[in-house]
Structure of Teichoic acid transport system ATP-binding protein:
Amino acid sequence: MAELTEELSQVKAEEPNVPNKDVRVHPNPEPPAPTTGTPTVIVDDLHIVYRVYGATSDHEKGNAVHALTRLLKRQGRPQMKEVHAVKGVTFVAYHGDAIGIVGRNGSGKSTLLRAIAGLLPPHSGSVYTDGQPSLLGVNAALMRELTGERNIVLGCYAMGMTPAQVKEKYDEIVDFSGIGEFVQLPMSTYSSGMGARLRFAISSAKTHDVLLIDEALATGDREFRKKSEQRIKQIRESAGTVFLVAHDLRVIEETCNRVIWLHKGKIKMDGDPKEVIAAYNKG
Ligand SMILES: Nc1ncnc2c1ncn2[C@@H]1O[C@H](COP(=O)(O)OP(=O)(O)OP(=O)(O)O)[C@@H](O)[C@H]1O
């Protein structure tokens, strides 16, 4: 384990750290004293636009003549399509907030989380965060060909933990994930639920200033969901801020103190979970 951690710390040291200049993140090395009412995330008139290159325009769809002409003229597909996924979203999140984000498929929930995490540059508008945001998604970058054990070590390093902290947390992460002896096997042998549980266990082993969870709880069973909810409560109590995207509205209602309803990239409602979820269910 010591050898492995040393090897991984070298790997990490060589990774280029490319700051995203479009997202203004203000890392706070000394976590602030828990103060409710202090803003942690400010999203100001945020617009996110995806550019899809090589998209087929409507009049070209399924048209063999166009495809053949392009081939003969050796032309590529110059078309570029823009998808305006988030359209002028503005809100402020505070210490101790657990904010659920609901909305239909394609309403912009994952895009908003990725923008808060600093992974997508705004087309216009700004995101300000106090502290380091961490995104935990069902597709979080664990490596399928590596064992659970190696992924735990790698994941902990990626979150900035020291070798001593990784050692201290290792057993707790394995216990919490409930994957047992599978920890010695490559993640490619895990069910999707086991993978999701391990990702959640790793990400939540550290105290986060801002933790963003994208559907990560959806694949867990009932018992695991209860444990995860408990852990989200602990993160809130340590004055962090949690954002949770889940299609299961019960999870959101039981875990969050505030809900944002996104509709076609815009905020339709923002407030008390019961009220927002009732309106969402009607509309
Ligand atoms: N990488 C991408 N490239 C182009 N368009 C994208 C990309 N990712 C998402 N989109 C588009 O952006 C819009 C918002 O997608 P997003 O995944 O944020 O929605 P969502 O609310 O999280 O959806 P779901 O509930 O289905 O997960 C959709 O129209 C989607 O097609």
User: Anything to note?
Assistant: The chain has a mean pLDDT of 81. The chain has one domain: 2-39+95-121+132-282.
